[in-house]
Design goal:
The protein has 13 helices and 19 strands. With about 450 residues, it is of the alpha/beta class. The model has no long low-confidence stretch (mean pLDDT about 95). The structure holds 5'-deoxyadenosine (5AD).
Length: about 450
């Protein structure tokens, strides 16, 4: 059977989709190739959220077409995911070496399409239609990648987005919001835990909007909180995370859940995007700066140690120096543990791309530098504060930067590197933080008792 190599760009949702496609292909007899040099099928799972991500994948495919295709003409080349969805046939028109374009509601049919190509039934395949219930098809996992059991897993609970932020291409690449059922999601989580998974991250474009259309609020609890409660019941599961929420999803029911559900870790990634009410309104975010600050305050009241990270877009059309000052000040006021800063990138067919007063690139660069300084200074302070403290970590495996050491995450989602061995994998253990680096902590399990 042919071997497949999948390269993934973009968010955790894309990582998860790639994993499900790989698992589905393995179930049909395919094998996974370690790299593109030996693969019979090369698939790029793409991201459209910024132009840079699209350019990277396009350039990669051009290179593959030039190098790999020349020496092995029978290799099958495909694009999947967000850019495949939004550009469709255009991708083959632009790069005629591409054989396959699989949209975001067709991932589960990748094996069918490859069969069609290998058997000669079809020459080129472009499949980007919507498909009913496709949100429930991302469920297979690769549970022992790298020959080791997985400690953590992602579970996709929904697809699509109805928020229509004016900068964002996602509603056009991922479609309308559609949610899986609670029993279906719980069954997947149980299966993962039965295979040794200790921590599950629930994924969706706006996870806090989970089940809104299908499940009524009961006893003051939204569908998302009902789902958290159902997953919390699973014996053997130690930690629950989710990403990404929308600030509007932090009702009192969710905030209160942090005090009530011990497996729900003290960590939240809450995209603020801007500190200026004027810009937030132009972005169609649906909250004010004050409302955002109110949510953070409530969360910290329930969980004072809450690790809070965010996303910020700089240089949104019409952003003035004064608006930017508001973003700097929201950063200082909240003291986010970490912030991911993005320079605004106009996306096709989104309202913001046609807005007046687009911000020149040098201004974006300059604001980026200034914000980065504040983010790093606050981050360093947060991390330094933890030195000398004790923290519980879940050990995930070897450190990415130094494979001779092991790494785990605290409940607040901070990475801790320590001298350990394979026997620590999957363990929940206490360490003493001995040093803080740049957004990394170093721990020592041995000197805990001192
Ligand atoms: N330009 C820049 N950043 C963007 N994001 C989404 N759309 C754009 C865009 N057009 C950022 C947002 C989002 C993150 C995943 O990507 O901050 O939260």
């Amino acid at each position: 059977m042919p071997s497949v190599y999948i390269k993934t760009y973009g968010c955790q949702m894309n990582e998860r989709d790639s994993e499900a496609v790989a698992a589905q292909l393995i179930a049909k007899g395919y094998t996974l190739a370690p790299g593109e040099a030996t693969a019979d099928v090369i698939l790029l799972n793409t991201c459209s959220v910024r132009d840079l991500a699209e350019q990277k994948a396009l350039r990669k495919m051009e290179n593959i077409a030039a190098d790999v295709r020349r020496s092995r003409p029978n290799v099958v080349l495909g694009f999947m995911g967000c850019m495949a969805q939004s550009r469709g046939q255009q991708l083959i028109d632009k790069l005629p070496d591409v054989d396959l374009v699989v949209g975001t509601q067709k991932f589960h049919r990748a094996a069918e399409y490859l069969d069609d190509i290998f058997s000669g039934r079809r020459d080129k395949v472009v499949e980007v239609a919507e498909e009913d219930r496709s949100e429930a098809t991302i469920r297979e996992h690769l549970l022992n990648g790298n020959a080791h059991k997985s400690v953590t897993a992602y579970v996709s609970i929904m697809q699509g987005c109805n928020q229509y932020c004016t900068f964002c291409i996602v509603p056009y690449t991922r479609g309308q919001e559609r949610s899986r059922t609670i029993p279906d999601i719980v069954a997947e989580c149980r299966e993962l835990v039965a295979h040794g998974v200790k921590e599950i991250t629930l994924l969706g474009q706006i996870v806090t909007s989970y089940g809104k259309r299908d499940l009524p609020t009961t006893d003051g609890k939204s569908a998302f909180v009902q789902l958290l409660e159902a997953i919390h019941e699973i014996e053997g599961l130690e930690r629950i995370r989710f990403t990404s929420p929308h600030p509007k999803g932090y009702g009192d029911d969710l905030i209160e859940a942090y005090g009530r559900l011990p497996k729900l870790v003290e960590s939240a990634h809450i995209p603020v995007q801007s500190g200026s009410d004027r810009v937030l309104k132009l972005m169609h975010r649906g909250y004010t700066r004050e409302r955002f600050l109110g949510i953070i305050e409530k969360l910290r009241r329930v969980q004072p140690r809450m690790g809070i990270t965010t996303d910020i877009i700089l240089g949104f059309p019409g952003e003035t120096e004064e608006d930017f000052q508001q973003t700097l000040s929201v950063m200082r006021e909240v003291e986010f543990d970490q912030a991911y800063i993005f320079k605004y990138s106009p996306r096709r067919d989104t309202p913001a791309a046609a807005m007046p007063d687009q911000v020149p690139q040098p201004v974006k660069e300059e604001r980026n530098q200034r914000l980065l300084e504040v983010v790093n200074e606050i981050g360093a302070r947060h991390y330094q504060k933890l030195v000398g403290q004790r923290a519980q970590i879940l050990v995930e495996g070897p450190s990415k930067k130094n494979a001779a050491r092991m790494m785990g995450r605290t409940r607040c989602n901070k990475i801790v590197v320590f001298d350990g061995s394979e026997r620590h994998r999957g363990q929940l253990m206490d360490v003493k933080i001995i040093r803080a680096g740049s957004f990394t902590l170093y721990g020592d399990p041995a000197i805990l008792d001192e």
